[in-house]
Write a structure and sequence with these properties.
The structure is a homohexamer of 121-residue chains. Chain A has 121 residues and is an all-alpha fold. Chain A contains six helices and no strands. In chain A, helix 3 packs antiparallel against helix 4, helix 3 runs parallel beside helix 5 and helix 4 packs parallel to helix 6.
């Protein structure tokens, strides 16, 4: 099976994050650490936080950020219908300008589900 | 007690919505109806959906939209800490450019809590 | 009759433009001149160009820019229905985050029509 | 003749739209239907509406949306000069940050014209 | 002398920051601290960093953020011409949609200069 | 040595700029000329102006614009630490949504440094 869009995304992300850390001053490092802190279990469960991160990335229209949160939502057990309802809110708030990102978000989601089905087989 | 920011917002919103409906074609009316549909209980509870709407409005930095969802979150029983965690995600994703909106969001939230305390008294 | 939102907008705009010109270097002056050039009659009539400027300002959600183009559209003879159709496109493309700007755009439009009715009386 | 950027765009768009519809709830389907409704002949001709959609997509800087409206503008008989004037308004309103999108918009336009010239030959 | 726009801005900012800190979790507090750290003298002088913060706020079109950095630029000894050149870059990159913010930025700048002239008298 | 991302960017940019100029009316040409004027040595040195252009492009999240200013900053002798501090401001102001652009900005910077090391050898 050839590498899919998720695989390619994660490889590139990992490689470039090394580069970011090579240049990073203390401030940048702290900001990255705050970023992971934001999604940790709290009064709101991580699953809801990842949906919040997804919809924020969606209306701001950043494909890489959307892909990252799509993966995280999948890992947190978000269902197809929960995803659809969350993206619909992003779609309504952000307008048709988000449609190309919706397409690519679902493409990533579909790939995650196929991989998972293979693994569970 | 003088009218607060919530009261003023709701009065103006109601009045101007009448104007929107005066001019609205069929398409605009349908879009408004889709908008309310998006937040209805589904696979995701309305409370989560209102938090999604809040964070989407927050990173897109629209004060009126934020105020609207702050009121809805309050009505859905969102707690102080849940609100803080949701806004923190918006803040981290959207950056310090969201700070003035964070200030005004909490100003509205504080007012809602004060009114509520008076009513419960 | 007390000054309306259009009147107040135009007074403030005129006054602050003087300030901009006091500080403006040659580059800023040329940019302002390019700006008016963009809306001059060409292959596209000025009326269409003003609708383009309106919808661009609408999806970028700048109330002052919207107000300016609402006035210009009114002067160019845009009808109620033409305005509604143009704003509907902006609304669909830009999403519900544009709703507060739609409200204020129609508020300005309504005021322009009332003044005009008074003048024609 | 190898597939150009328009061809590739349309194939991918069609394929991914199927995926969107596979996941789409009633709300998403209605939003897609509202979207096509927005550009139908009305008080404003479809050609003007497509120019409005193009400029809205241009200032919001979405390449896929721009490509879609570039194709539609071409189909509606927009001339080179009309296109240039519309994009100039988008360029002035949205600033130099739109330049990369202007380049790619004209690349798509140029390809459409070449194909058309071949077909008319 | 009645309170000007700078005075009013600072009073409201101070008051609402107290509210933010009342609700702030550890993450929010750390983000506020990173924010001040970003503008500290380093390889780049604070004056240049404040100009960077100003132009970033300007193209993202946040009046409160612009006002804050206008004050900081004034404190750091930015000259009229340096300000004009920095805002011109923001204006060119961000387009005419920034014009209302340019007007209000210069209004704040002008007020700062007048107050300063009074104090130096 | 195979062509890197900088090389590919510059080739495509040059080619598409020819296309832009083929269609450009007088207004577009003047805007392009204003654009280069904005970064000329003035009260602010070109190096600072390029950093301003970089941070503006960074918070507006345009990869091509970022790449262009990364190259210009490199040519103007910006150091690693100056770059890191400028991008950190962009990162803090614009939020984690800028992270994918930060990755690609540093990837371009790293490539410029490698080429330069080869040339100086």
């Amino acid at each position: 099976m050839s590498a899919g869009i998720i695989d390619e995304f994660q490889k590139q992300r990992e490689e470039l994050n090394k580069l970011v850390m090579k240049y990073a001053g203390q401030g940048t490092k702290r900001f990255y650490s705050l970023d992971s802190q934001a999604y940790r279990e709290g009064a709101l469960p991580t699953k809801v936080k990842e949906l919040l991160g997804l919809v924020a990335s969606f209306v701001l229209r950043c494909d890489d950020c959307i892909k990252y949160h799509i993966i995280r939502c999948f890992e947190e057990g978000v269902s197809d219908q929960e995803l659809e309802e969350a993206l619909f809110i992003g779609h309504i708030v952000g307008g048709t300008i988000t449609i190309p990102h919706q397409r690519r978000a679902l493409q990533a989601w579909e790939e995650l589900k196929k991989w998972n089905a293979l693994l569970e087989f």
